[in-house]
Structures are given as C-alpha cells and as structure tokens.
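Lecture notes, structural biology module. Today: joint structure prediction for complexes of two components.
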Amino acid sequence: DQQVKQNSPSLSVQEGRISILNCDYTNSMFDYFLWYKKYPAEGPTFLISISSIKDKNEDGRFTVFLNKSAKHLSLHIVPSQPGDSAVYFCAASGNQFYFGTGTSLTVIP
Amino acid sequence: ETGVTQTPRHLVMGMTNKKSLKCEQHLGHNAMYWYKQSAKKPLELMFVYNFKEQTENNSVPSRFSPECPNSSHLFLHLHTLQPEDSALYLCASSRASQLAGYTDTQYFGPGTRLTVL
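The predicted structure, tokenised, for the full assembly:
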C-alpha cells in the first residue's frame, strides 16, 4: 500500500511559467519531507526539504509547501527553465523514507 | 558529483550467474542503503546498514545478499536471479539512518541498470 502518492505522472509547462508538482501522503506521523530530481541515467539528486514544524521552505526558484491537515505537499518552481525538465520524486520520512512514483516535468522553451 | 559511486552502471546476467554490485560513498556518512526501482513503481527500500550493521531487511529474497565491510563500501551480491528482478538498483548514503533516530537527507548514486535474461 503506497504511503506517498504522486498522482500526476507527467506535467508540461511553458518556460518562464510556474510548475507545480503535487504529492499526497497517508501517514500523519511523517515528520520530514523531501523532493528529489532525477535526470535519465542518473540517480536522484536532493533538491529541497521541509520539516513538519514548517509549512513553507524556499530555496531560490524552488519552494516547498506543506499542508499537514490535508497531508499534502507541493513543489513550486518559478520561473521554470528547460533545464528543470526531469522526473521529480517526493519522499516522506518515517522509520524509513517512502517515495512516490515520480512526476515527469517537461519545460517547453 | 554526488559523492556516491556505483559500479557497474549496466549489467546483463543469466539466471544462473553470480554477480556483485558495488557502491562507494565519499561523504563520510555512516548509513548506506540499497533501493530497487522498477518501472512505474516507487523506490523500494531493500537493505539499510548503519555503522556497518544491517538494521533493516525489507523482506528481500535471499538471492540478494548485501555486504558492508566498512562505512564507505556496500555490496549487493546476486545469485540465481529471476527476470522480474530486472530493475535499476540504487545505492544511497546518509549521516545515519532513521532507525538510529535521525532524519537525514539521503544522497544517491547513479544506479546499476540490471537485466536478467
């Protein structure tokens, strides 16, 4: 049973616009959340994280929002750039990391 | 440069072969992990080592055998695999593992793409 879900397998966005990637989780005990980015033929690379005591964390063009009551996490990328085209995984930390299935983002020049 | 390297990057093996995957981390971390990524599925945690001791085995079949000789190296020994074991095998490391009471970012290697014929 999947504890972390990314319901959109793919997303296309125009360069310069905002990309919003969504993630839902089921376990209210998760206390730390991360986003990873993966290019083809490479392993996932850490992008940004957020602790459950916060509802927002920002790092340059990347912002992660956490809505604990809805058990929902989102990653905003603004402005989107073609180099952001990759697969994005969200992960939640309990006694181990639980990963979503990923969302493939394509940023169109 | 992620600081975590994996060899080989690609491996094709028959069901009767024995092979090993190698992972090395240069980050000074104490926890290392093996994950399996199959198409359209989330990453599945296989094994966790914390300070060279195995602390997690997620019901992995015995045809997968991990070895952690020190905090920097992790191996996955493979024998009599099945075609459904074909997947991307990812190694990761972190300062310490969740079961040790830490919540810490994991850093991944590039993976080994395994094909079992």
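Point to remember: The radius of gyration of chain B is 13 Å.
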